[in-house]
Design a protein that fits this description.
Low-confidence stretches: none
Bound molecules: zinc ion
Largest sheet: 6 strands, parallel
Strand order of the largest sheet: 1-2-3-6-7-8
Structural class: alpha/beta
Helix content: 25-40%
Strand content: 15-25%
Shape: globular
Mean pLDDT: 97
Order of helices and strands: HEHEHEEEHEHEHEHEE
Length: about 270
């Protein structure tokens, strides 16, 4: 079985990943991938926004690291991308980033449900104790819907991230999922099957089977990403992710170059 592209991986510039792009590329070849894409956490307009991303002045260095991997591994297709945080009000900054380099795609991710709470940050895990899980999921999906509507992104990242540590609302979230997926379909955004969830407390791929089934019914296309923060994680659990997508009915996924999508066989 040929594996789909792994479109979600990081570099040490984000300060919480290890290994250079060339090491990730080497691993990709070793596990049988033919295409990958680097999508490190994008800089914010303000470098002191948080401490888990590159500074704006390091963007050129990031691009050069990816270019080096492209030069060293001509047998592997390597895309240049970013995982961009979506926060309402950051749209102009995101457009500015888009204009700086010839990106292949942007993954739009919501990590922040307010300017100071990134819900997946283990250092802020206790914040969950003060919050109602449904309200967090609801705010998160409102922002994810806005991200999909913004047309700033080709792919929406880890669509049910709030489950990371196992915080699941007792109320039915189906309407939140429906609204988000309708927006993704309307603006032509793909969603990713992100296998990092299997390595977290939630122990399942992002997003859930339920969300993927709804996405398939609506005709929302997919990509795959291991969200590697170390070279050993490149392509991790891809066979399982492909199996899940195929069980649901998907027979193709997206390939991106110069921010344009082409459907390829799964
Ligand atoms: Zn990260
Ligand atoms: Zn992320």
């Amino acid at each position: 079985m040929s594996l789909p592209p792994d479109y979600h991986m990081h570099t040490p510039l984000c300060r919480h990943a290890t290994g250079e792009p060339v090491e990730y590329a080497k691993r990709a070849v070793a596990v049988g991938l033919t295409e990958i894409g680097f999508s490190d956490h994008s800089p914010m307009a303000r470098d002191d926004f948080d401490n888990w991303r590159m500074n704006a002045s390091q963007l050129d260095e990031y691009v050069e690291k990816v270019r080096k991997a492209q030069r060293d591994f001509p047998q592997l297709t390597i895309r240049l991308a970013l995982e961009v945080d979506y926060l309402p009000g950051h749209e102009d900054w995101i457009r500015d980033l888009a204009s700086r380099h010839p990106w292949d795609y942007f993954i739009g991710s919501v990590h922040y449900v307010s300017d100071n709470w990134d819900i997946d940050n283990p250092a802020k895990l206790s914040e969950w104790n003060h919050r109602d899980a449904f309200e967090v999921w609801s705010t998160y999906f409102d922002r994810l819907t806005m991200a999909a509507e913004s047309k700033l992104f080709e792919i929406i990242g880890h669509a049910d991230l709030p489950k990371k540590f196992g915080h699941r609302p007792s109320r039915d979230c189906t309407p939140l999922f429906e609204t988000f997926l309708s927006a993704a379909k309307k603006s032509g955004c793909a969603i990713e099957l992100n296998t990092a969830g299997l390595r977290k407390d939630c122990r399942e791929i992002y997003p859930s089977r339920q969300i993927l089934e709804l996405a398939f019914q609506k005709g929302v296309p997919i990509t795959f990403g291991a969200d590697a923060h170390a070279s050993a994680e490149v392509g991790m659990n891809f066979a399982e992710a492909v199996q899940l997508a195929r069980d649901i009915g998907y027979r193709e996924c997206c390939q991106f170059a110069s921010r344009k999508c082409r459907m390829i066989k799964l």
